[in-house]
Every structure is written in C-alpha cells, then in structure tokens.
Amino acid sequence: MQFDSDTVTPLTTPATVPAAGSAAAGSAAAGGEVAITDPRTGALVGWVDFTTDEELTAAVDRVAAALPGWRRISPADRGRTLANAAELLAESELELAELNHRETGRPLEQALEGVRAGVSTLVQYAELGPLHTGRTLRGGSGAIDYTVPEPRGVVAVLTPWNDPVAVAVGLIGAALVTGNTVVHKPSERCPHLGSRLGEVLASAFPRDVLVSVSGDGSTGARLIAHPAVSTVAHVGSSATGERIARAAALTGAHVVRENGGNDALIVDEGVDPRWAAERAAIAAFTNTGQLCTAVERIYVHEAVAETFVTALVERAGELNRSGALGPLVDERMRQAVHEQVVDAVQTGATALVGGEVPAGPGSFYPATVLTGCRPGMTVMQEETFGPVAPVQIVRSFAEGLRLADDDRYGLSAVVLTPSMEHAQQAAEQLTVGTVKVNDVFGGAPGGSAEPRKASGSGFGYGPGLLDELTLTKVVHIGTPR
Question: Where is each Aldehyde dehydrogenase domain found (predicted)?
C-alpha cells in the first residue's frame, strides 16, 4: 500500500463474506486484503489493504523526517493550514458520513453531525493554536525567566469506530497545530473511512506531516513501539489503553488516553420524572448506546421511580417500533451486549422492553430497559456499549451518589436534580472527569476534561490537550557582565 494513494478497492462480490461489520481474511503483520461488511445488511462495503511492517516503519520514518520543517512554521501559519483542512473536511462531509454509515451502521444524519463536529473542532484548534502561550517570571534585578511550549515530536493517534471523524480530527488537529507530526491509525472496523479521512486532511498539509496507516491492534502495537514515536494519543477501550500505558512505560512515550466509561445517571426526587426519562433515553440510546459517555446505569429515587420507569419504557418502545436505532457495529458487539442482558435477567433483573436478539440481517439490538438491577450484576459493573438502560431504585440521593461513585471507571456522570445542594455534593464527591447537572450531553466549546481511574489519563480535548501535546522549556536570561 502506498500512503499517498487510494487504498480502498470496493468490489461487488467477495470471495468470502465475514460476519456483519467484521474484518477478516487478512493479517496486519503480513498485509493482505481484508473484507469489510455493512452491519445493517451484511453486504460488502469493500476490501482494504492492511499496512505491512515495512510500510509502517517507512511511514513513521517519513513523518519523523517531516517534523523539523513543520515545527519551524509559525503558529499562525499552522493555524491557517488547519482552517484550510476544516474547509476540505466540510466539502467531503457527505462522502465521509456515507462511509461511516456503511461501515459502522451509524444513522446517516448522526454521521453527518459527527463530521460537522469535527469541522468545528478543527476551526477551534486553528484559533487556539496560535494563542497557546507560555508565561514569564521575574527573578532578581535584570533577570527574567520565560517558558516556551514546544512540540513533543511524532504523535501516534489511535482512534475508535464509534465517532470516527470527530474524535480523530480532534486529536490530529491539536497535535498538528502545536507543531507535531502525526501517524494516524483508525479503527479496523472503519478502515475505508479512516483512509479517506486521512487523504482529505493530509491534502491540506505539507507532505508527510500527516500519514494514515491501516490495521488492527497488532498494527497499533508495532506503531507505538517505534522509537521515533514520542507521544501516543488513544481513544478506545480501557483494556487497550492499559496495554498502551504499559508499553509506553518501556519506550518513554507520553500517553494521553480517553478510555471506557460506565457512566451513572442519578434521578433525584423533585424532578419531573417524564422529563428525566426523556433525558435518560437520550443518554442511553443515542448512537445505539455506542458512545464513551453514554449512560450505562441509572439510580432513580423511589419517590419518582414508577413514573420514570414507565416513561422510559414507553420511549424505548417508540424507538424500537420506529426503527430509529442503527445496528451495533458487528455481531461480536451484539453478542457481548446480549450476554450482559441475559446475565442480569438470570440474576434477578427484569427486561420490561427489549432484551431479545431480533431476527433478520445485520447486528441490530433493541432499546432495552432493565429493572431490579443490583450493584453486583455485570451490567452495572462493566461498560455495556449498547442500547441498555439498567435501573436501580434507591431510597435517597445519598444512596444514589454512593452507588454511582462506587465504580472502577471515572469518565463522567449525570445528575438530574432540582436541589442546588445535591448538585454541589455530586460535583464534589463523584470521582469522574465531568459531572453534568440537568443535562446529559453537551458542554461549553473549548472545555477540557481529564478522565479518572480505568477511564484514562490526561486531557483528551479542549485547550488542555494543547498542553498535553507540548513540552515546556524554561529560558532564564540574566544580565551580561
């Protein structure tokens, strides 16, 4: 595979079609063709060549060679180049959204929203990059110290399939605008999209400043082991993030990672339970639950529980009847989600709606509401990453707060409450990177957050990411004698 040419060769009929949404029939180490199929229908999307070892080494070497020239370009000029990349991305939004739709099953309108979010992120970093400054300190008379942010070097960016454009361009944009060069490995579940996204973005920059490679986890492992890689930025599962952190401990690479979450939603007494149920449905079922910050467990106060659960079940039923939910990304993911649901039912929970694998093609799974859930159930302890809303009734806000915080993950949490006191308690006591009060998604433009525990480390977006991707040099100037 040549990194500066089209690597996607769509075919009309495959020799052997693997399971829906899967990648098979090839080896990343040896290269080879891999078939990618549509998780909605099982139909072939196309074939993609995985990057070989030799090509991967050559790619990193080229990106390393491009670093000295790119880092010398002024921050303002780098910002203008990033703004140009945003324009090119906007021009390609339909093509990229369609590839996302076909490879991951994400509904087309949501896929378009993801591309547009990526455009906004590039514009934001184009503006923030030139304003990323150091500070000054006065020492003795006639002396001064100042700090200068400098690029870390070659950044390996490893990104997921569930929001493949917005996540990728956020990390890539922050790395490039601060003077780093980038090797990007998108998920093997959407390699056509990753390849085309790389071509669109790379066309805005000097040659080899940004290079994309294709492959699975073994490709990523070889990429981060390359001695020229100074920084690894990863969004994906906690298991993969932990392996990256261990590998980086040997190479000395700096690691920024946003990993899995098991986000809790606390529904306090005094809120409108139907309004709360609508918020819960948005948080649990958007993108078929395949979002890092999707709500994975719900603690509802007994005073509003009956009406809340009834309304949540009604909303889930509406989604199932309308066909508004897209499929899960592949059969493997559907099986993992269903296993958690079955385990919960077998250990005492009740599926009031959903909970069954539907007949027909693709890897669809219905919006599911579980009641009678308890802390020891797998569905309450582990990230489900599917359209499942497990509900546990609590007797007080304090109980809900305690259960919400008793978790090995620490990405974010949601609190729906009319009480300012309870909102402040949640903000203080929840060990997560983001606490959202009376809202389930969103946030101020340019906001930064730092996940905790198994959910990762370092600022994964916002102005804080610019700090993560630069080194601080201190310069001390004294008076000559």
Answer: 32-475
Encoded amino acid at 73, one letter = I
* Contact by Cβ (8 Å): 362, 41: yes
- Give the H/E segment covering residue 299: strand 295-301
Which residue in the block uniquely carries the two structure tokens 């021009």? Answer: 91
From first CA to last CA, the distance across the chain in angstroms is: 60
224 and 300 together in one domain: no
User: Can you give the residue range of the structural domain that contains 313?
Assistant: 263-445
What is the model's pLDDT at position 395?
Answer: 98
pLDDT exceeds cutoff 60 at 187? yes
In angstroms, what CA-CA distances link 421 with 113, 298, 304, 343, 437? Answer: 35, 20, 19, 37, 12
Residue 318: CA atoms inside 13 Å, Cβ hemisphere, count? 10
Same domain, 87 and 59: yes
Same domain? For 106 and 221 the reply is yes
Query: Max CA-CA distance within the chain?
Result: 85
The pLDDT assigned to 438 comes to: 97
For 1-40, what is each residue's pLDDT tens digit?
A: 222 233 333 322 222 223 334 444 333 444 567 789 999 9
- Average pLDDT on 379-394 reads 98
Asked if 161 and 329 touch (Cβ cutoff 8 Å), the reply is yes
Tell me what pLDDT residue 146 has.
95
CB-based contacts of 467: which residues, under 8 Å, 6+ apart? 149, 459
Whether 286 and 253 map to the same domain: the answer is no
Do 116 and 181 share a domain, yes or no? yes
pLDDT at 31 (0 to 100) = 53
| Owner of token pair 């509904």 | 107
Distance (Å, whole) CA 367 – CA 286: 10
Are 280 and 145 part of one and the same domain?
Answer: no
Positive or negative: CA dihedral 32, 61, 194, 234: positive
Residues 140 and 232 in one domain: yes
Please tell me the distance from the alpha carbon of residue 456 to that of residue 241, in angstroms, as a whole number. Answer: 7
Radius of gyration of the chain (CA): 23
Is the pLDDT reported for residue 349 higher than 80? yes
For 461, half-sphere exposure in the C-beta direction (CA atoms, 13 angstrom radius) is 21
Instruction: Name residue, tokens 């080194």.
Output: 471
Contact 415, 435 (CB under 8 A): yes
CB-CB neighbours of 87 under 10 Å: 13
Token pair of 163 as six digits: 């929001």
Are 306 and 254 in a shared domain?
A: no
> Where does the pLDDT of residue 139 fall: very low under 50, low under 70, confident under 90, or very high at 90 and above?
confident
| pTM of the entire predicted model | 0.92
- Number of other CB atoms surrounding residue 245 within 10 Å: 17
- Rounded to whole angstroms, the Cα distance separating 336 from 331 reads 9
Give whole-number Cα distances, 288 to 25, 82, 191, 385, 443, in Å: 28, 32, 21, 8, 21
